[in-house]
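User: Could you check the structure of this?
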Amino acid sequence: MKRILLTIASCFVLMSQSVSAQNDDRLFPYPEPPQDMTNLYERCNYLVYKFWDQCDIKSAFSKKAKLNAAFSDWLSFMPYASADTVYLAIDNFHNSFKKSGDIALNVAKMAEAWLYSDTARFRSDELYGKFVDAAVANKKIPAAERQHFEQHKRILDNSSVGKVVPDIKLTLADGSQTSFFADSANYTLLFIYENDCLDCSFARVRLSADMVLNQLNDAGIVRVVSLYAGEPDAEFSAAVTAFPEKWINVASPETATYFDMRLKPAIYYLDKDHRIIGKELSVDNILNAFRSLIK
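Assistant: Sure, the predicted structure tokens are below.
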């Protein structure tokens, strides 16, 4: 609860700074909600929707550092606004420069930096997806540049919460083929790792040693799919001999094409329909959740 209150308080501070202190460091005057609009939700809706009203977006790109700062401020209000308002504001923003491939590309890159990169301050697949969709659809952006965002769209479409994982071909250690849809359980823990990843090794050891997870796995309630993001070669076959026998140990060189692997290991939690209900999970959170299943 404290974390939520602190976050809301910081938002009020930012709003106060943004709408009242029109200083020389700001690229353009930010919108100022009406004084009788005192509700945080309403004020953030107003700020998100009208944020760019006083900005000449074409000339703004001559001051990229200030534009980048303004873009960050705009994003900071979005968690406190309605989804419909946010989506409409993003659409309106893109419509203001859709005929300029150069601006559209730069906006997509800013969105990637703030929302999707390893150092993203406002990490959000949902918000980044709106900017990715716009970049992919904008034929003014050179095809070679669009391919980068097309790859991100493919990953978001297949590995965001609420999405069904792709039924890609998976290779077992004995060389036989299977897929995600070949079998199912009430829940699936999908553990994606790479070779020579120490964090992956530590996480795998903790998961394999956990008595509760082993109990759920033995009972068929939770199946564990250990997916190596690489070729199913001899090294893979030798390595998985040390993994739990009841895990489904597979490999696919296509893994990084479809799954978000910004965090390693990449851990996903799926329901019985292979739909993602959790991602970017820590081992501690996973094991605590499993303990609640047996209570």
